[in-house]
Amino acid sequence: MATDVHCTINNCKWWKSGNVCAATEILVTSDDIGADYPDNVDVDQVSMLAQQTGGTPAGSCMHTCCKTFHAEQKM
């Protein structure tokens, strides 16, 4: 299992210096299933949603989405 998740989306609240994702859990699913979820999913909901959803096939990486993304609020 990967110990580091690299992410270049620097406007996500989980993004940390060095292009590292600091979320404790991440939900990546197919676009078809992701369309049924809110735009972002709180990390404390990831395990439950993953168990409810089960396996979701995708034709390519272009058909996947990260539901853990949460736009950072700029003050």
Description:
This protein is α+β, with helices and mostly antiparallel strands and 75 residues long. The protein is 16% helix and 13% strand. It has a domain at 24-66. A hairpin with a 3-residue loop joins strand 1 (15-16) and strand 2 (20-21). The longest helix has 8 residues, at 46-53.
Q: What characterizes the major β-sheet?
A: 2 strands, antiparallel
Q: Alpha-carbon distance between the termini?
A: 36 Å
What is the general shape? Answer: globular
Query: Roughly how much helix do the residues carry, as a percent range?
Result: 10-25%
What is the subunit organization of this protein? Answer: single chain
Q: Averaged pLDDT, please? A: 83
**Counted beta strands:** 4
> Using only CA atoms, what is the Rg?
13 Å
- Strand order of the biggest β-sheet: 1-2
* Uncertain residue segments: none
Question: What share of the residues does DSSP label as strand, in percent?
Answer: 5-15%
Order of helices and strands: EEEHHE
Helix count equals 2
Structural class of the secondary structure composition?
Answer: alpha+beta
In short:
This protein is an alpha+beta fold and 75 residues long. It has two helices and four strands. A two-stranded antiparallel ribbon has the order 1-2. Strands 3-4 form a two-stranded antiparallel ribbon.
Which key terms come to mind for this protein?
75 residues; alpha+beta; two-stranded antiparallel ribbon; 2 helices; 13% strand; globular
